[in-house]
């Protein structure tokens, strides 16, 4: 009883001392202002020191009861510091999950309610060693960097596979393979990559396996060492972003996006301008509401990378159009996320049109596979297999939209994936094989040429079909020749 009474007295004096300490700091503290565009609380990049009032200095600490109590389901929080301070509080908590936070803040003299979605995941900050901005080796803006990229190559179905680069049949990627790709006329590599999908050392905190980070850094190093430009992304990655472009999961996705990109960006920070980052792969947004949510994911990506500093302060970053579809991008991508550095952003789209010629693997009730495409490459022998849409005129119109919307405004477009493939093996072999092969050559050359003419940087999608990754031999010389013809 006596000990308990003494503890109460001690606690009283600690609390009083803490109050005066807090008051002194708060007098000199200016709460940061919110921007005019709402963002999820975990998307904020809080650069200011969090005022001790939020922690009760000398008593309450990270992971304490105050934080635990505040994050209880249904709890209403009122704070005059604004949402960004609460974001800092939550992000510094050791709790990995909290449900149904409802916050009220003052913004421009009005009360604002910010409902945080159920299932919100809050991860620790991985931006633990930010550096001052470093422009060394980062002289090129997006337009200048785009002018240096001749022709790009995808290392597809490799690093985006769960369990490692060999999980889907690819051999281990070596520096010799990168040199071999360069010898074929390519000077840029796209590395589709999984991170959350089977590559976490601690899923509860979204910590990426250090061994995986080291491996990807090594492959990026192979490219940069050989004067190859590199685009590194978060690919499908199990669908945590692509499958959750909605309000319910918006905050959770932004939290994960932030956690992953802080780690990726920190690990790769010292590479020069040869390295670019892409925030996603093919995020499927098909209306204005989803596009608005997707834009917050892009914003979180940009904020996370920039916050790590160093060369990342100037690195060219790539954001994806909705579904990386040209028409959707033209219609829905009415604004880009904001960047603290000017002219360091590109937009990414993909192109496999017409689908029936490029990728379709079997006839369907809505249409048949096309074996023949383009002027001079239709077949009289199989007229029902000639393309009926998506030919040169449609290509010109589609690429022209991207030129007008982005390239003409100083925003390069990265054609991150494109390709058409020969059907000489398998179930569906054209009767007029010579004309089919001519059509594939024509498609590859035409798409590459028109992409470059419209301010787009072409990156051919390959999974090992054109270049032998094991023996460093050309397997499809016609494809390599056609791509280079378009790039000249």
Q: How would you describe this structure to a colleague?
A:
This protein is an alpha/beta fold. The chain has two domains: 22-115, no CATH class; 142-487, Alpha-Beta Barrel (TIM Barrel). The chain has helices spanning 2-27, 65-70, 83-91, 142-146, 175-183, 210-225, 250-268, 288-307, 326-332, 355-358, 392-405, 433-453, 477-487, and strands spanning 76-79, 102-107, 110-115, 152-154, 188-191, 200-202, 207-208, 229-233, 275-278, 317-320, 345-351, 413-418, 456-460, 467-468, 473-474. The strands form four sheets. It has an eight-stranded parallel β-barrel with strand order 4-5-8-9-10-11-12-13, surrounded by four helices. A three-stranded mixed beta sheet has the order 1-2-3, with no helix packed on it. A two-stranded antiparallel ribbon has the order 6-7. Helix 9 (326-332) runs parallel beside helix 11 (392-405).
Which shape, going by the Cα principal axes?
globular
Domain tally: 2
CATH topology assignment of the largest domain? TIM Barrel
Supply the CATH superfamily name of the largest domain.
Glycosidases
Instruction: Provide the spatial order of strands within the biggest beta sheet.
Output: 4-5-8-9-10-11-12-13
- What would CATH call the architecture of the largest domain? Alpha-Beta Barrel
> In DSSP terms, counting alpha (H) and pi (I) runs of 4 or more, how many helices?
13
Helix content: 25-40%
Mean pLDDT: 82
Instruction: Count every beta strand, where a strand is a DSSP E run of 2 or more residues.
Output: 15
Could you state the order of secondary-structure elements as H and E?
HHEHEEHEHEEEHEHEHEHEHHEHEEEH
User: Mind telling me the C-alpha Rg?
Assistant: 26 Å
Which strand-content bin applies to the residues? Answer: 5-15%
Kindly provide the name of the CATH class of the largest domain. Alpha Beta
Largest sheet: 8 strands, parallel, barrel
Distance between the termini: 88 Å
Report the uncertain regions.
Answer: 1-119
Q: Structural class of the secondary structure composition? A: alpha/beta
């Amino acid at each position: 009883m006596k000990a308990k009474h003494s503890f109460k007295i001690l606690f009283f004096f600690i609390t009083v001392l803490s109050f005066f300490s807090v008051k002194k700091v708060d007098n000199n503290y200016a709460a940061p202002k919110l921007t005019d565009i709402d963002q999820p609380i975990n998307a904020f990049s809080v650069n200011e020191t969090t005022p001790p009032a939020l922690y009760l200095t000398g008593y309450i600490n990270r992971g304490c009861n105050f934080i635990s109590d505040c994050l209880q389901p249904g709890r209403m929080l009122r704070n005059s510091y604004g949402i960004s301070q609460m974001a800092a509080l939550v992000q510094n908590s050791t709790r990995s999950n909290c449900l149904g936070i409802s916050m009220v803040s003052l913004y421009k003299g009005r009360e604002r309610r910010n409902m945080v979605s159920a299932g919100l995941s809050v991860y620790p900050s991985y931006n633990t060693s930010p550096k001052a901005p470093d422009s060394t080796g980062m002289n090129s803006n997006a337009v200048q960097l785009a002018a240096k990229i001749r022709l790009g190559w995808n290392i597809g179905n490799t690093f985006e596979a769960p369990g490692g680069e060999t999980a889907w049949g690819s051999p281990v990627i070596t520096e010799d393979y990168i040199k071999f790709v360069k010898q074929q006329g390519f000077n840029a590599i796209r590395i589709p990559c999984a991170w959350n999908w089977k590559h976490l050392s601690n899923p509860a905190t979204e910590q990426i396996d250090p061994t995986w980070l080291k491996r990807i850094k090594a492959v990026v190093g192979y490219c940069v060492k050989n004067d190859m430009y590199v685009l590194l992304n978060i690919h499908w990655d199990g669908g945590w972003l692509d499958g959750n472009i909605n309000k319910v999961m918006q905050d959770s996705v932004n939290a994960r996006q932030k956690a992953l990109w802080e780690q990726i960006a920190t690990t790769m920070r010292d590479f020069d301008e040869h390295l670019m980052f892409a925030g996603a792969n093919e995020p499927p947004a098909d209306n204005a509401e989803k596009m608005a949510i997707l834009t917050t994911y892009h914003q979180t990506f940009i904020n996370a990378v920039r916050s790590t500093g160093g060369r990342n302060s100037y690195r060219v970053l790539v954001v994806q159009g909705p579904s990386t579809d040209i028409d959707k991008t033209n219609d829905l991508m009415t604004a880009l996320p904001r960047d603290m550095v000017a002219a360091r952003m590109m937009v990414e789209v993909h192109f496999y049109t017409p689908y029936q010629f490029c990728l379709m693997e079997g006839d369907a009730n809505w249409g048949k596979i096309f074996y023949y495409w383009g002027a001079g490459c239709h077949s009289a022998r199989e007229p029902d297999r000639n393309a009926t849409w998506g030919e040169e005129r449609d290509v010109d119109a589609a690429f022209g939209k991207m030129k007008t919307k982005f390239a003409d405004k100083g925003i390069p477009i990265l054609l991150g994936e494109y390709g058409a493939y020969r059907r000489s093996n398998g179930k569906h072999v054209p009767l007029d094989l010579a004309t089919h092969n001519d059509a594939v050559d024509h498609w590859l050359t035409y798409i590459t040429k028109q992409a470059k003419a419209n301010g787009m940087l072409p990156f051919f999608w390959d999974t090992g079909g054109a270049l032998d990754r094991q023996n460093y031999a050309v397997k499809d010389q016609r494809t390599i020749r056609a791509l280079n013809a378009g790039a000249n």
